[in-house]
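I am still learning, so can you show me any protein sequence you like together with the matching structure tokens, please?
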Amino acid sequence: MFLFSLTVFSQIPDSLYFSNAIKINFAQYKKESTLAFVTGDLERGQFLFDSLVQHRLIGTTFDNITLKKSSGARLKLSSVKQPLFLLTYASWCVPNQGEIPALNKLARKYGKDVKIIVLFWDRKDKMKKLARKFSSRITVCYAHEYYKTDTRTVAALKHTLGFPTSYFLDAERKIVDIRRCGVYTGLSKEQSQQALAANYKSFLDGLLTITVNKDISKEHIADSD
């Protein structure tokens, strides 16, 4: 199997943007991850993803993209002055059970400390119904190849790490972590509270990487006990 060069990965200029960093080794990553997928080696696939994130992407600056809100307004990321939690979805890729309720709960409790954005890879008319399920404290946006203004965003995010994916950025848009978002529980609808709890804990763990909010730390410790 091909192996990534950690020597190359370890040298990341502070000024490097995410979109440039992902281009450097994406072809090699895609080749190896596709092989892992074809052979059913999920552990290898996760290892490749984690290696790319840890050694190539963390520490880079997230591009100052402009997103279209479902409300009709626009949001430029540089206007956000707090840590940012960005999730990418698609309307045809149904979130795991308990995922949206977990995000809504997180937004109600910590929406003042962290900006939460959900980005759908869809045209506006395709994602409006699902967007209504999210809390008003979550900024729901969309981007699609159909819109010329989204070319840069789609190329940098959708066609590289795929979706669903979680991006955790500090207040300066530096990438602190990137994760596959949500937790697949395989639970029945009757066990929805367990699914909510599992996803909430996963998202809470991600928030700890970008904020020093004492309440989040206390809640995380309590959940771990």
